[in-house]
Amino acid sequence: MSDELKKGLDGVVVAESSLSDIDGDRGILCYRGYPIEDLAAEASYEEVLYLLWNEELPTETQLQAFEDELREARAVRPGIYDQLRLLADSGERPISALRSSISMLSAEDPGTDASPGDQDAARHMGMRISAKFPTVLAAFDRLRRGKEPVEPRTDLSLAANFLYMLTGSEPDPMHAEIFDKALTLHADHGLNASTFTAMVVGSTLADVYNSVTAAVAALSGPLHGGANQEVMKALLEIDDGPLNATEWTEDLLDAGERIPGWGHRVYNVRDPRAVILEAELERLSERTEDCHWLEYLRDIETHLTEEVGLPERGVAPNVDFFSGAIYYQLGIPVDMFTAIFAMSRSTGWIGHVLEYQQDNKLIRPRGHYVGPEMREFVPIEER
Question: Which positions are catalytic?
Fold first, then answer.
């Protein structure tokens, strides 16, 4: 057994998975063998969810049955709204409210009485979580703005229904399509911190609600989730301040700060998801006739590429660089961005727990002790 220290488990392989594959040197991401570019262009988020949980893309009949099950599970009981109202009144952050809501949803699910490791029960719980997360998030945001929740509809896609519940109006089809793509792009990404957290909890044979609760908690930390919020805050600062995007970037670099939305633990080149989202942001900007957010981002990227040379050092735009501006133009509040990430990534969390529990082994790493050698205990009166 090796005693070599790998801080942060960097480069350590802890599990085998067939859900997603990343090539950080070539900028490639695949879900179950399908390039992310093809899935974003051709598949709905619901198809991707089915793929991650069932290994294959669904037939039309399978997708219809799957969507029907998801749509029927969207509604939550009035008591959930009552609890969300308390969270909203307390000033809770959306990501924290989402974490708390999982316990509420668990309490109303009879499937939690199933035997540990029951795959059918775990899949049922996962289905309910994925269906109800949009309802909970949209309701929380409306309640904190002094508005009543909008009940979910069963005739809209998951993406369109979320935007509808958030605003009370059926969204522009293009807006729903772009949001659907964003959800697909965030659905899974290997053993990142939150996914690994879900697997660790799942390896104890705790139920899916507990695994997802832990994953949301892991995502809430600023070193994992929240980068797209920071990007959008930066763009708003540029928009309101005296500096243009290039000057703002120079000031940040001079201060020794990191550029939000740049760099990734896995990718050494441009994140393939950023490529897709830049094109979607351009399309959305043309529809809304507001291109200045895109222009700021491109000015920042041009400066960091041509003047600073960050991509040559393996630092390039990641998925968060463009996603925040998309969400903002869709009317989603900035502090909701990380919770939106969780809403999408829950698909991957659940998929990894389902996969790992099929051949389960309790995850139990070792730590390297660096404390004092064996010492003789001294009674308190002699110290």
Answer: 224, 264, 320
